[in-house]
Amino acid sequence: MQYQSIQLKNEFSKMSDFWSPKVIGELNDYDLKLVKIKGDFEWHNHEGDDKVFIVLEGEMLIDFRDGQVKISKGELFIVPGGSEQKPSAEKETHIMIIEPKRGVATADIDPK
């Protein structure tokens, strides 16, 4: 077996689209994804699955119907499953997401 680390900076350099997660690894029943974000995403819900956001570069906000959290470089936040959320970033931000393999970034999008 060949062992090789994943060069996160290199993986981000291959990405050009925002809000388009790329699976870079699997851990048990979880996907590890990298994504570049900028601007606003839509309100959505992840049907009971918790989701981890780790900010590697930049800063992001996650709006909830009852509040907001700011996540800066070097910080992580666990979004409780079932909570409506709307992530955003003023400037280009690089994040890692850890979520169950069945998780979909646009589950239950609210068109409002």
Fold blueprint:
Elements (H helix, E strand, L loop, with lengths): L7 H6 L8 E6 L2 E11 L10 E7 L1 E6 L2 E6 L3 E4 L5 E16 L12
Antiparallel strand pairs: 1-2, 2-7, 3-6, 3-7, 4-5, 4-7
Descriptive overview:
With 112 residues, the chain is mainly β. It is built from 1 helix and 7 strands. The chain has one helix spanning 8-13, and strands at residues 22-27, 30-40, 51-57, 59-64, 67-72, 76-79, 85-100. Strand 4 (59-64) and strand 5 (67-72) form a beta hairpin. It is globular, with a radius of gyration of 14 Å. The termini are far apart. Mean pLDDT is 90; it is low at 105-112.
List its traits.
112 residues; mainly beta; 1 helix
Strand percent estimate: over 45%
H/E series: HEEEEEEE
On the 0 to 100 scale, the average pLDDT is 90
Distance between the termini: 50 Å
Note the overall shape.
Answer: globular
Q: What is the tally of beta strands? A: 7
As a whole number of angstroms, the C-alpha radius of gyration is: 14 Å
Give a short account of the largest sheet. 7 strands, antiparallel
Low-pLDDT sequence parts: 105-112
Short note summarizing the structure:
This protein has 112 residues and is mainly β. The chain has one helix spanning 8-13; strands spanning 22-27, 30-40, 51-57, 59-64, 67-72, 76-79, 85-100.
